[in-house]
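FW: tagging you since you asked about this chain on Friday. Here's the raw sequence from the shared folder, copied in full. Didn't touch anything.
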Amino acid sequence: MKTLLKISALLLALPISVLANFSLRVSADSTAGIILSTKCRGGYNINIWQNHTSGKLLYRATSPNGNLSLDGGTSQATEGVRVYKFRNGNYQYWVWDGTLDNPQSGTLEVYKNNRILMQRTCRKN
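HL: got it, structure written out here
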């Protein structure tokens, strides 16, 4: 009886959690359009979104270290390559959209107190 109850609870919880997960993502980003999607070395997946009405930039990342969502980033063209910059406390996240040699590649850089902690090569999806 306990085993049947556990299986029933699992079968009920799984579709609810999947449905909630997908519906939250859609509603969270439904007012924004994706402008950059990259896969970076080490399992980092970075998406940069832009809000349709306000123009505000949003950073969404998944990685083996967890997920991160930031908003209010900036964008600038530097030597022919666009860089998106986001801040979270003492941390800064820079996503380079291409390189001078290869527009389909890019770089993720993470800084803490203006010192580089991590640099990963990326490729556009």
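FW: DSSP finds one helix and eight strands in the chain.
HL: agreed, and The mean pLDDT is 82.
FW: great, closing this out.
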